[in-house]
Amino acid sequence: MSIARLSDEDARFDDEVKNTEKWFSSPRFAEIKRPYTARDVVEKRGSLPVVYPCDHQATKLWELLKKYAAEKKPLLTMGAIDPVQMTQMAPNQEVLYVSGWACSSVLASGIPYQLSTNGSERGWP
Fold this sequence. Notes:
Blueprint: H1 3-24, H2 38-44, H3 53-70, E1 78-80, H4 83-89, E2 96-98, H5 100-108
Parallel strand pairs: 1-2
Helix pairs in contact: 1-2
């Protein structure tokens, strides 16, 4: 690898550290205390960029929370007991909470699920 290529790589690394520092200092993370630096994080990343699908949803939720906080209004939500009920409720709610435990226990338990009119009956064999 030539010297020019190494300096290009160093420049990209430094840019990535600056971008991570900027992200760490955003209002979203104002109260977060980290025992590591942006440089530590960038050093441990792989060379391929990773896009996390949940990042889109987290950003969307953060923007909703900021909007309602600015208006000094509560952001009302409801909890769904499983993914089926969530898909039924989603068109009528801005935010839904689905417990990870509830989702995994329904989908991974091997217990048959019978959808009733209210989506809450579970059938046993």
